[in-house]
Structure formats: C-alpha cells, structure tokens
Design goal:
This protein has one domain. The protein starts with 13 loop residues before the first helix and ends with a helix. The chain contains 2 helices and 3 strands; from the N terminus they run αβββα. By secondary structure, it is an alpha+beta fold. Helices cover 28% and strands 34% of the residues. Strands 1-2-3 form a 3-stranded antiparallel beta sheet. A hairpin with a 2-residue loop joins strand 1 and strand 2.
C-alpha cells in the first residue's frame, strides 16, 4: 500500500466534483468528518479521501498568498 500524489492520473475526482452521494461513507478523524470512496483499477484498490475542513483551509491559504 502506498499514497498517490494529488495530481495522479489514477485518482477519479468526479465523485468529489459531483456530490457526496457517490461516496461510500464517512468517518471522524481528529474531530473532522472525512468522506471516502473506493475504486478498483486492475488488481489494485484505490481509496480516495475528502476532508472538507482541510480542503477549505488549504484553499484559503492558496488565495491569501
């Protein structure tokens, strides 16, 4: 198991862009709600996570610069 870079071609971002209904579920990590979905690619399983709180914080940092 290993982590992929955010711009990896193996990550399907359409569930994140569309809406959270396509996610399989969510869990709490450090008092934040984290959404996830799994995708099968050949013999590999790719799990993508979305932490909306962290996403908002990173977007805010990017626009403040």
């Amino acid at each position: 198991m290993f982590a992929l870079k955010r711009n990896s071609e193996y990550i399907d971002y359409t569930p994140i862009i569309d809406n959270k209904r396509k996610f399989e579920g969510n869990f709490v990590f450090q008092k934040r709600n984290v959404w996830f979905y799994t995708r099968k690619l050949k013999d590999e399983r790719i799990i993508t996570y979305l932490d909306p709180s962290l996403k908002a914080k990173e977007e805010k940092k990017r626009f403040i610069r």
